[in-house]
Design a protein that fits this description.
By secondary structure, the protein is mainly alpha-helical. It has one domain. The chain is built from two helices and no strands. The longest helix is centred in the middle third of the chain and has 31 residues, at 5-35. It is elongated, with a radius of gyration of 20 Å. The N and C termini lie far apart (56 Å).
Length: 52
């Protein structure tokens, strides 16, 4: 099996984009945690679950 330079570059670019998306999501999640949004969402989820 022969892997071309273009295929390697495509795979590396795809991996880098995936890592950047994960980093952005992580940053947004941390901001939401700082704002209290995560705790609010967890509280709402628990309330919904107990009301069923």
């Amino acid at each position: 099996m022969y892997i071309t330079k273009e295929a390697v570059n495509l795979a590396l670019n795809s991996y880098a984009e995936q890592q950047e998306r994960a980093a952005r999501i992580s940053r947004h999640f941390e901001q939401a945690r700082e704002w209290g949004a995560v705790e609010d969402a967890e509280r709402l989820q628990r309330a919904e679950k107990h009301s069923r």
